[in-house]
Write a structure and sequence with these properties.
Chain A has helices spanning about 5-20, 20-30, 40-50, 55-80, 90-120, 130-135, 140-165, 175-205. Chain A is mostly helical. In chain A, helix 1 (about 5-20) crosses helix 7, helix 5 (about 90-120) packs across helix 7 (about 140-165) and helix 7 (about 140-165) runs antiparallel to helix 8 (about 175-205). Chain A starts with a helix and ends with a helix. In chain B, helix 5 packs across helix 8. Classes of the chains: A mainly alpha, B alpha+beta. Bound molecules: protoporphyrin IX containing FE (HEM) and FE2/S2 (inorganic) cluster.
Chain lengths: ~200, ~250
């Protein structure tokens, strides 16, 4: 297998972006959205997730290792491009560029977010509504999270388009156009879910 | 008599592969319907810059002058295209000409396109029919398929898609869009199909098909209108299947 190593790594990178990382992203934002129905709902949902059996194994296999692999190879991919949107300002070239920008923003955001929540919990902080409320009532943090969440969701949605093309599911220009619209809908809907939750934590509405 | 209309060219020049590039401006008498190459020919006849200095003639490459050979590619007002098929009337002035940056410069607007020749060899961009005895006629190709394949066969290795691709550069070994599409052409041919696996393997090597990041500039700039991104997605599927077959499949050739 050694001969097609780069091919295998890149296909794996593409797959991991959707399964499991993309699936996890949606699950994470949907569970957090319980906050909108009240502190109680959020705490119940968060505690359920927190008390899943084999939590550390699940986290490692479904989240940490895949993101680590995707992020490391992703940064390499970002730096091997010479972006040229100023010369070739086509829509897909812009999306190619923004896919790379949002990859970097997402990396910074995730690193900070994990430090501020998961690692603090491991160090003894309590996971509850109040924790996120404390973080997000700070206006700077609120906007940092808004940018981070939208960037991540964009990266995932446009990445979903890339996944469908990179594996050869969508070939004809027409099908590629339709999935552009479909992934745009994914972007809007998932962004809404994420942003709505942040607003609840920050402003209690 | 009315004043003679002129066309202004700003040309990025380079005397040798290792010397530093510099710019020179030229005014050329305007003629109706002139293309960029006819402007370069005027400069060749009278190599005097805009401020009256005598200079060496500007070098460029050309052959067919009808957009089929691919030799005359250069960056015209920021985008790579064929200088023989680019009309001066359709351009903003001054017209800026640069060599394609993806390739090493030989002189002025002439670049070394050898990497594309290497790429053609890598993907076996031919149909092997030579043998030690007459193999007889090959299988026939349906007319409809031939018409479809003809569109893919218009590739003239002009290098414009490589120049426009953000992933073809000195930091990556990506082979370039044209060479992801050509294997589809040769694999579609009834005789070429016999070496299908080899071409797919070549696409799966380092710098192969996974170098594509779907910026899709190639299909926008291709002077021959080749459906490059459709080809790439099709070969993405072929290589995905090929990889699964190699791994999970039996010991097929
Ligand atoms: C929540 C985190 C993330 C998710 C859900 C995610 C998802 C995806 C998906 C689905 C793709 C499409 C794969 C393809 O083009 O076939 C992708 C591509 C990509 N990701 Fe991520 N990703 C995440 C984090 C990151 C990070 C942290 C980086 C690093 C900076 C990154 C860099 C990239 C790059 C450069 C591509 C484009 C690959 C290409 O076009 O060839 N991603 N991502
Ligand atoms: S001279 Fe042949 S394509 Fe322009």
């Amino acid at each position: 297998m050694a001969e097609h190593r780069e091919f295998m790594y890149r296909r794996l990178h593409s797959l991991l972006g959707v399964v499991p990382i993309g699936i996890f992203l949606i699950q994470h934002l949907v569970v957090n959205h319980f906050a909108v129905y009240g502190e109680e709902s959020f705490n119940k949902a968060a505690n359920f997730m927190d008390n899943l059996p084999f939590k550390l194994v699940l986290e490692t296999v479904i989240i940490y290792l895949p993101i680590l692999f995707h992020a490391i190879l992703g940064v390499y991919i970002v730096f091997t491009a010479r972006n040229n949107v100023n010369r070739y300002g086509f829509l897909r070239n812009w999306l190619f560029f923004v896919q790379r920008i949002t990859g970097i923003i997402t990396l910074v955001f995730i690193a900070w977010h994990v430090w501020q929540t998961r690692i603090q919990i491991a160090l003894g902080a309590e996971l509850n509504f109040g924790m996120m409320e404390d973080i997000l009532t700070n206006p700077f943090m609120f906007w940092f999270y808004i940018v981070g969440v939208i960037s991540t969701v964009f990266h995932f949605s446009n990445g979903l388009w890339g996944f469908l093309v990179s594996w050869g599911f969508a070939q004809s220009p027409k099908s590629q156009k339709i999935i552009t619209y479909a992934t745009l809908v994914v972007f809007i809907v998932v962004s809404y879910i994420g942003v709505r939750t942040l607003i609840t934590f920050a402003y209690g509405i | 008599m009315a004043e003679q209309k002129t066309v202004t060219f700003i040309i990025t020049r380079q005397d040798s592969p290792d010397s530093a590039p510099y710019q020179e401006t030229f005014h050329v008498p305007y003629r109706k319907n002139m293309n960029v190459i006819s402007g370069l020919m005027e400069i060749q006849k009278n190599p005097v810059t805009a401020n009256g200095q005598k200079t060496s003639p500007v070098h460029w490459e050309m052959n067919c002058l009808e957009e089929v050979c691919g030799a005359c590619s250069m960056v015209i007002n920021g985008t790579a295209r064929q200088s023989c098929a680019t009309l001066v009337d359709e351009l903003e002035q001054p017209i800026r000409l640069e060599p394609m940056s993806t390739f090493p410069v030989v002189r002025d607007l002439i670049v070394d396109r050898e990497r594309m020749f290497d790429a053609l060899k890598r993907i076996k961009a031919w149909i092997p029919i030579d043998g030690t005895y007459d193999l007889g006629p090959g299988p026939r190709m349906p007319e409809k398929k031939r018409q479809w394949a003809y569109e893919l066969s218009k590739c003239m290795t002009c290098g414009v898609c490589l120049e426009a691709c953000p992933n073809v550069n000195d930091k990556s070994d990506f082979i370039g869009p044209a060479f992801l599409s050509l294997p589809r052409l040769y694999n579609a041919h009834p005789t070429g199909e016999m070496n299908k696996g080899e071409r797919l393997d070549a696409l799966m090597e380092d710098g192969g098909i996974t170098g594509c990041g779907n910026s899709q500039n190639c299909v926008q700039v291709c002077p021959k209108g080749i459906p490059l991104t459709t080809s790439i997605a099709a070969m993405n599927r072929e290589t995905s299947i090929h990889a699964f077959r190699n791994f999970f499949g039996s010991d097929h050739a």
